[in-house]
User: Fold this.
Amino acid sequence: MSNLPGIVITGASGRMGQMLIKTVLDSDKARLVGAVEREGHDWVGQDIGAAMGGADVGVTVTSDALEAFAKAQAVIDFTAPAATIEFSKLAAQARAVHVIGTTGMTEEEIAQLEPSARHAVIVRAGNMSLGVNLLVQLTKKVAAALDDDFDIEVIEAHHHHKVDAPSGTALMLGEAAAEGRGVSLKDVRDSGRDGITGARKKGDIGFTAIRGGDIVGEHDVLFAAAGERIVLRHMATDRAIFARGALKAALWGQGKTPGEYDMLDVLGL
Assistant:
């Protein structure tokens, strides 16, 4: 058991954090060696199993990320952009694989991960599920096959707790559509329509974000032309798919050359 890769989960008290912890504890391919929460959090100093309402598992929640990372072969991180940037530096010091599921990162924030990727493996993706990454590939192919007589809209729906919009997955899909068309997303992105906006600009890629209830994640890519529509859809009904994908990425990264990777690399797509 001790020769299995050791995993640390950041943001341990969050919904994804708890799902990740359960996934690692249930796995026969990895072991949980750390759980990190912010300083002053009620869970710090408690056994993570007890903090989650179960039996002790022998892992104490800590606010000292560097100490936790030093014992790990991988860190799985679904937190916030500023925290992720700092965690990337500490994971690089520990030479631990850093799996990043954090969304809402700007281009400038993503660029700040580059120095860490020179020393350790970083796997970053807006979505860790197999189905979504297949959808990304399909979106790219369909966009490449259709001209700009087809308007492209990415429509996403998530639970009311989600703080960023469009979602990381929606942006992945938008990037795929733009790549298929041979354009840059930043030049054709159209989101946040409100009021008298004027007619839709030909060639733009639009985004619509829906927030409500406990929706895990739904994404449609709509290709609409006069007289016909094509809709590519993925619906997530269980957050566990993201946790399983993140663990797969953490295991895949063992022994890889330092650098930045994504789930397409992990899945061989």
Observations:
- Residues 130-145 form the longest helix (16 residues).
- The chain has a mean pLDDT of 96.
- The CA atoms of residues 89 and 115 lie 8 Å apart.
